[in-house]
Structures are given as C-alpha cells and as structure tokens.
Write a structure and sequence with these properties.
Elements: E1 3-7, E2 10-18, E3 24-31, E4 45-53, H1 58-76
Antiparallel strand pairs: 1-2, 2-3, 3-4
C-alpha cells in the first residue's frame, strides 16, 4: 500500500517493494514546489531514500515516512509554513 501525504508544504510519496523472506525495500521521495526548499532544482526533490525493512508491512513503511517528517522538521523549523 503506497503512502501519499502532504506535510509542511512537502509531498511525501512512499512505497514498499517486496523481497524474499518477507522483507521489503521502502522507497520515499519528498518533493516540493517551493523553490526555497528544493535540494535538487533539476528534480524538485527535497529528499529521496531507499532502505530495507524487516517485513513487507505498511506499518514498517509508516515508520520510514515518520522518520522523513523528523528530517523535514529539522530542516524546515526556521522556514515560514504559511
């Protein structure tokens, strides 16, 4: 089950790809249309990550998405969200 959320003017898209033995790879892309927040001007991406998770379970994916939110908070605390 993919996750698509908006958070502090960022768009988070996350998916799980199943692997052998019930494990999975989580892929998360965080994008924004706010040029002041874009890390890569060529892709509109703020953050992109892939990591292995212990099970192909949506709860595992939500943990990764929540970790991305912490990274967004750390970066964006001094940025106006209005």
């Amino acid at each position: 089950m993919p996750v698509n959320e908006n958070y502090r003017r960022f768009q988070i898209a996350a998916t799980l790809a199943p692997l052998a033995n019930g494990r999975a790879v989580a892929t998360v892309a965080v994008t924004t249309t706010d040029a002041a927040r874009i890390a890569d001007l060529g892709t509109d991406r703020f953050m992109h990550m892939e990591c292995w998770v212990e099970s192909n379970d949506p709860d595992q994916l939500q943990v990764i998405v929540d970790e991305c939110k912490v990274a967004i908070d750390h970066y964006a605390d001094n940025v106006d969200d209005s």
